[in-house]
Amino acid sequence: LTNQKPAPLMAAFSSSGPNLVDPDILTPDITAPGVHILAAYRQFNNSKVPYKLVSGTSMSCPHVSGIVALLKSYYPTWSPAAIKSATATTASPFDSGGGHVNPNAAAHPSLVYDADEQDSIGYLCGLGYNQTKLQILTQTAAKCPDNPTDLNCPSIAISNLSRSKVDELHGSYRSTRECVGVGSSICAAVQAQRRDESIPGDI
């Protein structure tokens, strides 16, 4: 937003979550510039102005897409999940998702959380998808693993930490992540003990 100090400022029309399908997945992942962006604009009604100030995800998405292309040039073997992790864990602290995207920091993360198709299949099985639904969704002969795992995303969100669940787990809630060190880094399990607690970022 223009004439606002300090910046950035979350636009009133922007979604701040939560994820309605699965509240235990933190959304939005990151924020990016998307208000009053000077952009190329198609001409109509005899307009001769090729540019316009535009707002919305149509403007923030190109910013993130450019950062993704930059990261892919630095790390050509990284998966989409690894690139997403780098942008989320290095974002500047903000009030939505992992924070406001920081391209310079994203190019030098200390670690990334990677995931592939099997991670997603295990996650869907944990949500209750059976083999028939999985095969329709993936168009493959996918099968649920014996031990469905947490989705290996770069954040932890706990939407409903009930008292009974706390007691069953001896006063704690455990969610596991696996990371790949880009530099010198250590991964550890994270325990959260408060209701509606989310912990984005490096661990």
From TrEMBL:
It comes from the Eukaryota. Belongs to the peptidase S8 family. GO terms for molecular function: serine-type endopeptidase activity. It comes from Selaginella moellendorffii (Spikemoss). Residues 5-95 form the Peptidase S8/S53 domain. PROSITE patterns: SUBTILASE, SUBTILASE_SER. GO terms for biological process: proteolysis. Pfam families: Peptidase_S8 (PF00082). Keywords: Hydrolase, Protease, Serine protease, Signal. InterPro entries: Peptidase_S8/S53_dom, Peptidase_S8/S53_dom_sf, Peptidase_S8_Ser-AS, SBT. This is Peptidase S8/S53 domain-containing protein. SUPFAM superfamilies: Subtilisin-like.
